[in-house]
Each structure stands twice: as structure tokens, then as C-alpha cells.
Task: structure prediction
Amino acid sequence: MLNILSITAPIYLSIGTGYAATRSGFFSKLDMQVFGRFVLNFALPAMLFNALSLRDFQDVLHPSYLLAYALGSVMTFAIGFAMWRYGRRESLTLSALAGMGVSCSNSGYVGYPILLQILGPEAGVGMALTLLVENLVIIPLGISLADSGAAQQASWQRTVLASFKRLLSIPMLWAIVGGFVFSMMGWHLPEVLFKTVNLFALTCVGIALFVNGGSLVGMRVVGQIQSVAWMAWFKLCLHPALVGLMLWTFGGMDVSLQIAGVLLASMPMMGIYPILGQRHGQEGFCAAALLVTTVASFFSISLLLWGLSQVPGWRVAAGG
Result:
């Protein structure tokens, strides 16, 4: 178990450092937004491009993984949505946000740093494939339903189209596409450009964790503990369980990809979750869910890593 904590403790200590630095006033929340934009628009795209472009195409394109992760995530979305919409009698908008929250992970800020310690360079491939599912399936689905609930006069077709148009401006997606193209064609960047891209890629992990911690400052849970507890349970337990079930059902893929899928699904929800909720006046609920889930994930992810280290054939690197 100490080996497992040697993986998770530095991650959450880095998050805690970001929280402490922002809480003390050394950095402001606005500073965290600037750092976050740097990660999303430069560091993370550079890392994704390198992870894909430097490998053979057959090693980076895994349709079975994409399908399995997508099915597990959509099933989680549907269960979360149904519980809020029909079990708790909440609005379509809040139900859609809940479904998106429990089925879309913080793959870049928390997931990748953990995967990198376990899988090494293979971590980038698993994260890139997962980001495709999240950005092309889960986020458009959640935003479309939430927007439909907030603007009943707009058709779902128009909200879906608007969601996909917004995705075209995301550098991460273009980095993934570019990485796939370079891998498929066997191209390589000139050495000067490669070293430049690599410099940005190397900054990704530390800054991402620092930003994740700083973003938690000011979030409150008062009066919402029951709701966010359900969110945390769905995200940290149900999502990885369903993704793991789908990965096991499809099979035929490398064990490292299966580990990547289960671990990425077990991460807390994405860091921009409160921002997405803010568009519909639900930033308080989304922020509370993010705070509780992020704190609880230290224990759930550590337990999951320990469990994986006990399973023959799934023994994580930290487990020896």
C-alpha cells in the first residue's frame, strides 16, 4: 500500500499546494484561470501531439477501446440523468449537468499525472483516446440537453450543432487529430520544432495539478451534501465499474489500455465543470460536487490502485 501512496500522495500534495498558494493570496483565482488556459491551449495539446505522433499508427488507434469507453460512459450518463430527472424530479438542465458530471473525468489535470507514473509513455495514448470520447460524445450530449432545458424553443439538433461548432475551437482536439495524422503518415517534426513542442509538453503535469488545486478555493458544500455525495459515488465508483465492464466485455486489447480506461473513469469530474454549470445558474452545485469528488478521489483512487495491484495480469507498476 505504501507503493500505491507513493503514486497518489505527490499528486494530491501538488493539488494541495495549488490550493494553499491560492487560499493564502500568493496567487489569485484569476491567476489560476490564466495558468489553466496555458495548460488547455498549449501544454496539454503539446503533450497529446507527442504521445500520438511518436508511435506507430497501429499502436495509437484502438476502436474497441473507444467503443467500450464510450458505452460505459454513456451508460453512466444515462443512469445519472435518470436519477436526477425521474428519481429526484429535477429539471432537464440540472439532470443533464448531473449526467455529464458523473460520466466525464478530469483526464488531463489529474488522470494523466497518475497514469504517467503507472504506464509511462503509454499513458498519453489512453488519455488521448479518452479525450476523444469525452469531447465528441459526453460533453456535447450533456451541453445539448442542458441547453435544451434552458431554452425550450431551441431544437435539440441546433444545440448539438452549436456544441460541435464550439469543439472546433479546442486546441486539444486539433492536437489529437494532428498526432493521428503524423502517426499514420510516419511524419516527424523538424528537430527544432520537436524540441519546442516537447518543452511545452514537459510543463503539463505540474502546472495542471497546481491549477486544479487553486480552482477549488472558494467552493462551498453547505446545504448540498446529500446531492454531491451521490455525485461522488456515481463518478468514483459507478463510472469506472461500467467502463471496466465494457472493457472486459470487448476484450482483445492491451492490458495497459484496460488499466488506463478504468483509472481515467475513476478520476473526479473535469475541472471546468463549474464553468459549464455557470451558464445555467448551477455553478454552486457543480462546484460543490467537484470539491467533494476531488477530495474523496484520493481515497478511492488509492484503493482502486491497490485492488488492481492484486489482480493477476492487471498488476500496476507501483504494485511491483
